[in-house]
Amino acid sequence: MLQLGLIGSPLGHSLSPWLHSNFLEQTELKGEYQLMEIKPENFPEEISTLKDREMNGFNVTVPFKREIIPFLDSIDDRASRLGAVNTVVVQNGKWRGYNTDGDGYLESVRAVYPDIISSAERVLIIGSGGAARGIAFSLSGLSLKIDVTNRTPSRAEELLSDLPEAVRGRFLTLNEAALALDEYDWVIQTTSVGMAPKAEEIPIDVKKVKENALFSDIVYRPLETRFLLEAKRKGARVHYGHLMLLYQAAYSFALWTNEEVLPASLITEMESKLEG
Ligand code: ATR
Q1: What CATH number corresponds to the domain at position 36?
Q2: Count of domains observed in the chain
Q3: pLDDT tens per residue, range 146-174
Q4: Interface predicted TM-score (ipTM) over 0.85
Q5: Atom 5 of ligand 1 has which residue's CA nearest to it?
Q6: CATH value at residue 204
Q7: How far apart are CA 205 and CA 207, in angstroms?
Q8: 118-145 CB burial, b ≥16 within 10 A, e <16
Q9: Are 155 and 59 in the same domain?
Q10: Which of 30, 74, 127, 168, by CA, is between 20 and 30 Å from 51?
């Protein structure tokens, strides 16, 4: 019986138990996935308790993706460069940390818009937090240039300097990015701006979009952010945030079980859960 779960705070409406119980069903593995909400002030003690439990692996979400690192026995290279872990694999009592957010994002785009992966030349990432870094690192194997815009310039500069030179573009202020938006084949919104209950907010105005461009938002509550709605009205193709959540979960599941699952089969039901 696989013992899986999620640590974070708050975890109220997490879809992860539903996703992973579907993956368990698909692979005919027996197991359970539990929500383990931890108050930030109790983190070290709760982690010690967790070490004593017979877990096979767990996910880590806000606000512990960085805090978990000192408690690991080892860490995957990418997660280490990122400074954020969203998946822990437990083997012989040892904890190893990974981050599946960026690859989950990339795979979710490949599933819906494969042409973008092969043809996009200029990419704009809005934001420079952990999610932006994970996505940028996963994109850095493709043949494209990544520009970054962020409210705080120093964080964007740090992200750019951590990227391989071949893909490293330039920093733009949010205003500059709004004016240059129609130069990009692929625009990726990674900030929390537009998340419910502040769904009326938008990180940058969408005035013009390039023909055939893909606009993507990692926010999935609401499913369609104002940013994506405006991009769609201007003719962009859009990619929704729940797809990243779905595919990063599939990658975590594969790390724990070595089993491949079919995330696409869950998309419609996931959408009705998020809309309901
Ligand atoms: P995560 O790890 O989930 O990406 P994070 O590290 O807190 O979270 O990063 C959040 C991102 O959203 C950052 O790019 C942040 O901009 P700053 O670097 O300037 O803080 C951006 N962000 C959050 N709230 C914002 C707001 N109201 N306006 C503009 N950007 C915002």
Answers
A1: 3.40.50.10860
A2: 2
A3: 999 999 999 999 999 999 999 999 999 99
A4: yes
A5: 129
A6: 3.40.50.720
A7: 6
A8: eebebbbbbbbebbbbbbbbbbbebebb
A9: no
A10: 30
Same domain, 63 and 151: no
235 and 247 together in one domain: no
On whether 34 is known to bind a ligand per the annotation, the reply is no
Percent of the chain with pLDDT over 70: 100
Q: pLDDT per residue over 52-75, tens digit each? A: 999 999 999 999 999 999 999 999
Report the nearest-CA residue for atom 26 of ligand 1. 193
**Is 198 in the same domain as 225?**
yes
How close is the Cα of 123 to the center of ligand 1, in Å?
19
Q: How far is the CA of 218 from the centre of ligand 1 (A)?
A: 12
Question: What's the pLDDT at 218?
Answer: 97
Whether residue 37 contacts residue 13, with contact meaning beta carbons closer than 8 Å, is answered with no
CB 243 within 8 A of CB 214: no
For the entire predicted model, the pTM comes to 0.96
